[in-house]
Amino acid sequence: MFGHRDFNGHRQLEEKLIPILRDLIRKKKFIEIYMGRDGEFDTYAATLVKRVQKDYDDYHTIEFNLVLPYPKKDMEDFEKYYDRVDIPISAHPKLAITKRNEWMAEQADLILCYIERESGGAYKAVQYARKIRKEVINLAEKTKED
Questions:
Q1: Which whole-number Å values give the CA distances from 7 to 83, 115, 136, in the listed order?
Q2: Which site from 15, 45, 60, 110 is most exposed, i.e. has the minimal number of CB atoms within 10 Å?
Q3: Main-chain dihedrals φ then ψ at residue 69, nearest 5 degrees
Q4: Burial class of residue 48 in the structure, from the number of CB atoms within 10 Å of its CB (0-12 exposed, 13-18 middle, 19+ buried)
């Protein structure tokens, strides 16, 4: 999942993300989610994933993974909240978030994002995902129901 650091689409994200996660679980029986923790989107989306994960907890159908660009001071708290915490790459701090985002895109079968503008790290990550031919669903896009 990718989204902008500053984020205002709480209601729209909740209305779209929860049904998509439930549908993926019905179809796949197990899903693995990769997410960063660098802004408002990440924080709010994580609460929604945890809500859905709790509904299916007996079946262990969602593995929720935090992917960090480098170690952070709250590692113990992160390890309690997420199923797994990964730091998969080693890069200069100025490149670390970009490289981490590329790594997440490469691992994914599906990219769920909330992109409202054509700038920033989340936008670049989604552009990279499209370049490597990953399926992308932008939850910020308006649908007929919106």
A1: 25, 9, 19
A2: 60
A3: -80, -20
A4: middle
Q: Which residues contact 88 (CB under 8 A, 6 or more apart)?
A: 67, 100, 103
Quick: pLDDT tens for 104-116: 999 999 999 999 9
Residue 24 in tokens: 């993926």
CB environment 84-119: b (16+ within 10 A), e (fewer): ebeeebeeeeeebbbebbbbbbeebeebbbbbbeee
| Threshold 0.85, pTM exceeds | yes
Is-contact 108 34, C-beta < 8 A? yes
Strand partners, 110: 135
The Cα 67–Cα 111 span in angstroms is: 15
**pLDDT tens-digit series, residues 13-71:** 999 999 999 999 989 888 999 999 989 999 999 999 999 998 887 666 889 999 999 99
